[in-house]
User: Which sequence fits this backbone?
């Protein structure tokens, strides 16, 4: 799946002030719910927190890929947030995280979910893309870096 199909300006936030794992997941949940009438903010948060309990989605290099499934969602949705300062997210490399690429997928889409996660992880393994996201001062800059 092409990232252009799942990211959008109204679900991207740059340099959010945050100080905890729970708070960033709350911010992501709020952004998701405020941009889709068919999903509930608390359901998004619950889904993301349940996934984090299974193991951190912090993949290293200051990047996390929180994700969850939602019953009322019709198509994959991405929420992209950078935060300042970077926060402890129990990442695999024990480094703080400042780039969050959250994925919400329809409950029944298991295979598509894994392919989309792999695609996102591949894009975020590109050092130039990550540098561009970290240099971003606007949501437009983040989208441009991801969709380049």
Assistant:
């Amino acid at each position: 799946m092409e990232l252009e199909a799942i990211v959008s300006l109204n679900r991207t936030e740059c340099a959010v002030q945050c100080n905890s794992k729970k708070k960033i997941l709350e911010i992501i949940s709020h952004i998701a719910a405020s941009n889709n009438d068919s999903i509930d903010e608390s359901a998004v948060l619950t889904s993301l927190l349940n996934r984090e309990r299974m193991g951190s989605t912090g993949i290293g290099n200051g990047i996390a890929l929180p994700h969850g499934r939602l019953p009322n969602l019709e198509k994959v949705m991405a929420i992209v947030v950078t935060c300042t300062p970077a926060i402890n997210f129990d990442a695999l490399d024990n480094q703080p995280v400042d780039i969050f690429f959250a994925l919400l997928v329809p409950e029944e889409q298991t295979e598509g979910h894994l392919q989309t996660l792999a695609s996102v992880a591949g894009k975020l393994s590109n050092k130039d893309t990550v540098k561009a996201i970290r240099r971003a001062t606007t949501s437009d800059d983040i989208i441009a870096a991801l969709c380049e």
Summary: Residues 110-124 form the longest helix (15 residues). The beta strands are 12-17, 58-60, 63-64, 67-70, 77-87, 97-106. The CA atoms of residues 79 and 102 lie 5 Å apart.
